[in-house]
Amino acid sequence: MRKQSKPILVVLSSPSGGGKTVIAKLLLRQHPAFRRSISFTTREKRKGEREGVDYCFVSRKDFEKKIKEHKLAEWALVFGNYYGTPKKNIKKAEGKIEVLLLVLDVQGGLAVKHKYPDSVLIFILPPSVEELEKRLSRRGTDKPEVIRKRLEAALKEITFCRKYDYIVVNRKLEDTVKLLEEIITAEKHRAERTGLKVCLVKKLK
Known about the structure:
Layout: E1 8-13, H1 20-30, E2 34-36, E3 40-41, E4 56-57, H2 60-68, E5 72-78, E6 81-86, H3 87-93, E7 99-103, H4 106-115, E8 120-125, H5 129-139, H6 144-158, E9 166-169, H7 173-188
Parallel strand pairs: 1-7, 1-8, 2-7, 3-4, 8-9
Antiparallel strand pairs: 3-6, 5-6
Helix pairs in contact: 5-6
């Protein structure tokens, strides 16, 4: 069997507070052959976030320059801030890793699917809107009015989940991670990813 040269692009999306970032970190910790594509963003760095690990923080001017120079595989304007995936992240991953994780909102996820049709889109749903509100409040990073806006946006984002390849309800974190591992394993064994062009058929005697 020919060794896979292109990584599987796995997009994790969820409403803000849905758990996509934490899930990505756990997958990366448990699977050395996985890598995360670090996105550019123009938003302010949150407490505990690290440059080049959580995001690459850039100015609005720099981001818009990258758009004009076609250096982004996808980009979106979310809550007044730009987010985007560098094309070079995907190119650099070829022939080196098995899975490239992209943690994106629905705009970014669908843009990746359009450009890379064999990418795998997984939408992570919260158990309920009430639980999502609790999670956003527990983060302690947003003011009440911002949380309300995020909840309104979440309801709109959820309407796009059926455009994704898989929908996973994040009730219990460890169960969610296990299910995502199973999905990724199954995707690795899809016929079109193996590189086999000939099927061996036993001749009838």
